[in-house]
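Memo to structure team: turn this sequence into structure tokens by end of day. - J.P.
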Amino acid sequence: MTKFENKIDFAVLISVNNANPNGDPLNGNRPRTDYNGYGEMSDVCIKRKIRNRMQDLGCRIFVQSDDRADDGAVSLKDRASKTEGLNKIKDRDEFAKTACKQWIDVRTFGQVFALKGFNVQSVGVRGPVSIHQAVSYDPVEVTSMQITKSVSGDKKEGKERSSDTMGMKHFVRFGLYEIKGSINVQLADKTGFSVEDAEVLKECLQTLFMNDASAARPDGSMEVVKVCWWEHNCRDGQYSSAKVHRSLHVQLKEGVMAPASVEDYIIELEELKDLKCEVLEGK
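Reply from structure team:
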């Protein structure tokens, strides 16, 4: 594994077409928006998709979805218990080091281990990769339609078959969202995050919505447009992450009032002196 030595900032542009990028469970699963109507995706949602892609690429993941569990574990405690030697460790630093070595998502995003039955009751790991919530460049139009949620497959004796259950489906007509993130060298030193891990993360960002299709997000409705990957030439970075992220300029073309596709935008990258930026297309 190659030691990670230079700070990295990244930004991902994603387009949403007739899909629900991240439903709000406290608002009838409507797409998340702020008070001004701008679309949002939580950082937790984005990290879940990255973890799924890491798993697809053959990496060991600690925080797995129940429907994607690949090791037979039924809980995080069960997964930790099945890791050889982990429940025998008494030193917190050694526990954290072992966990980071076992699971790429732990050494990437960090993790809090608050597990009963272990010799160390609570261990916190700070990960080097930080990700902002995604926000759309313009207010999004949320459309709702009434649907049949389910049907009754049984007919009770002496009664007619129960009627279908009705519900609502919500989706964003179109939105161009931006995800921002950074990789901190100092924290990478502590977790063992490597250059190879950074390449895995880059691949995951390019293929963020692969194997992610659902009724709310049909195949092709969510697309990675561009990935901007800035690699600094030092540990702390030549520029602040805020300045680097501001160097990506996205604005509507003249005369466009309501964007309907990514072609309605002008996407430009401001060059920062001595800072290399790799621009990648989504896969």
